[in-house]
Amino acid sequence: MMMNIVLFGPPGAGKGTQSQNLIRDLGLVHLSTGDLLRAQIAAGTPLGLEAQGLMNAGLLVPDHVVIGMIRHRLEECPDAAGFIFDGFPRTLAQAEALDALLEGLGQSIRCMISMVVPQPELVQRLLLRGKDSGRADDQNEAIIAQRIQEYQAKTAPVAQYYAQQNKWKEVDGTGSIQEIYSRIREAAGC
Length: 190
Ligand code: ADP
What we know:
By secondary structure, this protein is of the alpha/beta class. 58% of the residues lie in helices and 12% in strands. Adenosine-5'-diphosphate is lined by residues 11-12, 33-34, 37, 54-55, 58-61, 66, 87-88, 90, 94, 137, 147. Residues 11-12, 33-34, 37, 54-55, 58-61, 66, 87-88, 90, 94, 137, 147 line the site of adenosine-5'-diphosphate.
């Protein structure tokens, strides 16, 4: 049975950092829709061009685009020990599509780890990251506020979807990287 974990939380919660820890120690495959989209932009594909304007405005890209990318990556890695889903699912439609895709593989989500960080700290972290990441969406407070608003309107309800399946676990996303990592391992029971 694959170990499939959804890492969940608002922009700046630390999902990417903790994903790296999990893939290093558990041998899981990292699936970040943000990274996949940025790779499409860098390669100048039509999909990348479609996504770029939305991402730079702090809006979500259409569900069919990200679901297609995830389907493709799942098919490419049939022998994975499991996946860390980072930044996906971000809408209820994406969560339902993910369950259907995994069911087709005879697999399922083990748990959703929700990382909780107070909003002022999120904004500080993103502005700091914007200084050296070069990410356009990290450099402007109005765009950051728009991303947090998209999260609250469209993504936060996804937690309820997993709570109904008894798969939702909340962890404190403040403190040292190592402390947060220990909380995640404990919550995931792995
Ligand atoms: P963060 O979590 O810090 O906002 P990401 O790298 O996960 O950063 O995502 C950056 C942007 O990419 C999002 O603001 C959104 O525009 C787009 N994006 C990423 N994942 C998804 C998704 N699952 N559905 C829709 N849009 C997405």
